[in-house]
Amino acid sequence: MKKTTIVIILLMLSVATPMSSCSENKKSAYSNDSSSNASVSKTSNKRPKQQVVYHDSDLKPTVCNGKYGFIDYQGNVIIPCEYDYAESFSDGMAMVGNGRKYGFINQSGEIVVPLIYDSAYPFSDGLASVGKDLKWGYVNKSGEVVIPLIYDLPGQFTEGLAVLEDDGKYGFIDKSGTVVIPLIYNRADQFSEGLAAVEIDGKWGYIDHSGNTVIPFMFDSAGSFVCGNAEVWNDDEKFYIDKKGNYVEETLGDSF
Question: pTM to 2 decimals?
Answer without folding.
Answer: 0.70
